[in-house]
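Task 17 of the worksheet. Students: predict the tertiary structure of the chain below and write it out as structure tokens. Keep your answer in the requested format; marks are given for formatting as well as content.
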Amino acid sequence: MILALSRPLVSLDLETTGLDTERDRIVEVGLVKLAPDGSRTSLQRRMDPGIDIPESATRVHGIRNDDVRGLFGEPPLGRIGRELLDFIGDADLCGFNLLAFDLPLWRKDLARHGLEFAMADRWCIDARTVFLAKEPGWDRFLQGPRNLNNAVLHYCGRDVAAGFAQRDATDGDGSLLGVDLDAQARHSAVKDADATLDVLLAQLARYGDLPRDVPGLAAFCEERERKKEATATSAS
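Model answer:
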């Protein structure tokens, strides 16, 4: 495998009530564990966020209040958090916008339920940070935003991207359902987590100067994030 692993790497993706890492809540967690032998295992869980899901968030992931809240809804994070933490174990983490969004919200929401996510000796890789660093000439107006959909297209090819875009508009055997076209753009946490691993491995294949080990990649991402924060601070 192109990435040297001494222990598993877990790709983490969240579907949430919004984009505020302090106030918003998780409604779905997707975890995909990449083992040192290259095999993958996954876990996805929905939960009652304890607050209403705005329609703007539902348009992103397709999850409505009635899907997770009430008598026949989903359990809160506090009841299923231990299962998720046990699945991750001592693995390192990766994600797409992990450092700025998923990880802070993940830790904050766990803390609300009295659960701690230990970060000591845990490396974190952000495929979006790599995207930003290695493609400085990306034209947002011509090529679109640097989101996961476009990362899959850029790094994994048009055929893979087409399947990824339609993932929630199919019934499992590839045939389209009779649903609104917006469903083709909705997010599924575990499929986004799996796609993030595909993007990361494709980035390693494309950029020969990237570190091939998890600590090295994590240091690369941390350095770029520090530079971004310093630039933002000096500009304010």
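Marker's comment: The chain has ten helices and five strands. The longest strand covers residues 26-34.
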